Amino acid sequence: MSQFPRPTEPKLVGLVALNCTYTSYVTKLQGFFTMAKASAMLIIIISALTTVTSDHTQENLKHFMDNSNTDFGRLCLSVFAGYFSYGGWQIITVLMEEVQNPVKDVPRALVSAMLIAIFLFVLTNMAFYMVLTPNEALQSDAIAMTFGRRLHASLPYLLAILVTLCCIGSVNVVVMGQPRILYAAACLGHMPRLFAMLHYKFLTPWPATFTMFLGALYMLLSGTVALLINYISLYVCIMLLVLLLALLHLRYSHPDREQPFKVPIPVLIVQVILTFALISVSVYEKPHELGFCLLILASAIPVYIVFIYWSNKPRAFVHLVDSFTDFIRKLFLLELPTTYINNHR
């Protein structure tokens, strides 16, 4: 499959356009993409089970752990990459405002989604190693295609379609969920007012979505898929660490506040230590790649200082920012939501 072009950027543009306009159709499409992902994994698992009695499969199962690298730093990088593979569950919390009964539905969705994902992903990885040797699996650019060619001539074409739908669905979830974080931060006054604006007709956060799109486009054009995975994994880990620290702070500063879903404090402390160690070791193992990603993330600090924390701005600067915000508002037909207006009365 490597000889064919990969027009990733047009697909990203198309998903951004859909999420900015027809959100209801996008959510329905996401269910279809999820079914395609589950179908692909079930086909791989069932196909591998048909070979379980063969000598080739038995030999592969005996030796699939041979020559494993047990270096602590490499193990941390493996876990680090796992954040990308098993990620996506946090989108449920990002879209909590669109859930009818979040107190009951969100915990149920999180637990069921993670259990199903772990079950299917582990079995899928085992299925690959039942059919392929470790060297074949590691050297393959598209492991599902290599797996399919080993079993049936037509299986790679079916898997190619399903894997493509899986990838589109994964990107669609990110495009749909991540801009909501920027939008929510702006509504609470933690980001510039521009990011809190919605399109007057479609009621979607266009400025937040466009900003996330530009960042994703830069990462796509500046490196390989492996580099993109490392960037996303580091971002997820840092976001998780900050979230855990904020949750610990709230538990100690507001112990009497009602919490429908309460995580035990020892679990939070252990998770903070593990996440911090994972980030530190991963950056130590790949200082240039992940260090540059840290610089990109740190670029948000001056934005916050200049536009939010700095209260005594010069009048000319405030006028310039307001003029630019008003220009973008008129250009894209934006308006401030009632949430922002109520929070800043």
TrEMBL record:
**InterPro entries, per this entry?**
AA/rel_permease1, AminoAcid_Transporter
Membrane topology per the entry is: Multi-pass membrane protein
Keyword terms, alphabetized: Membrane, Transmembrane, Transmembrane helix
A GO molecular-function annotation: L-amino acid transmembrane transporter activity
Q: Name one GO cellular component term.
A: membrane
Segments crossing the lipid bilayer: 32-52, 72-89, 109-132, 153-175, 207-226, 232-251, 263-284, 290-310
Query: One Pfam family, short name please?
Result: AA_permease_2
State its location(s): Membrane
Superkingdom assignment:
Eukaryota
> What is the recorded name of this protein?
Uncharacterized protein
Lineage in the entry? Eukaryota, Metazoa, Spiralia, Lophotrochozoa, Mollusca
